[in-house]
Amino acid sequence: MNKLNTSSSELDLDRPNIEDYLPSGSIQEPHGELRLRDLLDISPTLTEAAGAIVDDSFTRCFKSNPPEPWNWNIYLFPLWCLGVVVRYMILFPLRVMVLTLGWIVFLSCYFPVHFLLTGQEKLRKRLERGLVELICSFFVASWTGVVKYHGPRPSMRPKQVFVANHTSMIDFIVLEQMTAFAVIMQKHPGWVGLLQSTILESLGCIWFNRSEAKDREIVARKLREHVHGADNNPLLIFPEGTCVNNHYTVMFKKGAFELGCTVCPIAVKYNKIFVDAFWNSRKQSFTTHLLQLMTSWAVVCDVWYLEPQNLKPGETAIEFAERVRDIISVRAGLKKVPWDGYLKYSRPSPKHREQKQQSFAESVLRRLEEK
C-alpha cells in the first residue's frame, strides 16, 4: 500500500499547474476565495478542456531535455571551443576508424561462417552469436561507451523472456554486446532494415510493422514458439513499445507477460553528463543519432539484471506487467506514468493544440468576467 501511495504522489507532483499555461496577465484574482482551480473542480467541461491541452506527464515522456549551456562567459568559451575541436577533429575520426575496423573483421568472418557451416547448425549459431556480440562491442567502443553491468549474466534457458525499459535503439546494442539476444523490434527502413533482414535474422529476431494489425497474431505465435525452444537465443522484449526519454516508464504491453514463462527484468539507466542517449525518431534518423553519440565525450550507462519474476496465483497479465514495471522503475530511478506509449503516434498537431489552448483561455476569461 505504501508503494501505491508513493507512486500516486509522484504522479501528482508531475502534473503541471493549469494556470501556468494561460497567457501572463490573463487571470485576474477574483473576489473571495474563488480561483481557477475551483472552476475546474465544478465544471466538467473546463476540466476536460484543460486535460486536453496541458503539457502533462505524457508529453514529457518523449521530450529530450537539452543540457544547460555552460559556455556563457569569456573564461569558459575558449574551453568549450577546445572541447569541440577535440571531439570532432580527434575523437570522431578515431571512432570512425574503430567502427570501420569492426565491420571489416565482422563481415570477413560472418559470411564464411554463415554460408560454409550450413551442415553444422550448433557450431554455426554459436559462432554467429559471438560475432554479433563482437560487432556490438565495436559499436559501444565507437561511442567510448562506459557500461557497468550489475547482476548475473543472462543464460540460455527455455521458458524465459527478458524485458527492459526502452530509451533508444542503442539499448539493444548495449545489451547485445553482453548476450546475443533475439529481440522483437519494429521493422526499420534503410541500412538498419538491411541488417535486420540479414545478420540479425540469424539470431531468431522477430520483426513487426506497427501499422499492420495482422502482425500482432503472427508475432504472438512466434513468441510462444521461440520461448519454448531449448536451443533458441534468449528473447529480449521492450514492452513499452516505443522510446521514452529515460526519466519515465510508460505502460508495459501485456504480450510478454502472457507467455506462461519466467520474466527476467532488466533496468537500463543512462547518465546524461556527456550526452542524452534518448532517440526521438520523429526528429532525427538513427544515423544522425549515432553521429551525435560518436561526437560526444562518452556514453555512460548502468545495466541491472534483476531477479526473475513469475506470475502469482490470481494475478492477471496486466497486474504482472505493472509489478515488473515497478521493479524496473525503482531500480533505474524512473517515474511511472499511466500512459500507453502508442498514443505517441496519434497525438494532435501543435497547431491544433495551440488553437485549443487559445480557445480555453478565452472561455476562462469570459467566465471570470461574468463572476
From TrEMBL:
Keyword Transmembrane: yes
Start and end residues of each stretch annotated as Disordered: 346-371
Subcellular location: Membrane
InterPro entries: LPCAT1-like, Plipid/glycerol_acylTrfase
Major localization class: membrane
MF terms (GO), sorted A to Z: glycerol-3-phosphate O-acyltransferase activity
Keywords for this protein: Acyltransferase, Lipid biosynthesis, Lipid metabolism, Membrane, Phospholipid biosynthesis, Phospholipid metabolism, Transferase, Transmembrane, Transmembrane helix
One BP term from GO: phospholipid biosynthetic process
Every Phospholipid/glycerol acyltransferase domain range: 160-271
GO cellular component: endoplasmic reticulum; membrane
Record-annotated membrane-spanning stretches: 72-90, 96-118, 130-151
Superkingdom, natural source: Eukaryota
Pathway the protein acts in: Lipid metabolism
SMART domains: PlsC
PANTHER family: GLYCEROL-3-PHOSPHATE ACYLTRANSFERASE 4, ISOFORM D-RELATED, PHOSPHOLIPID ACYLTRANSFERASE
Sequence similarity: Belongs to the 1-acyl-sn-glycerol-3-phosphate acyltransferase family.
Name used for this protein in its record: Phospholipid/glycerol acyltransferase domain-containing protein
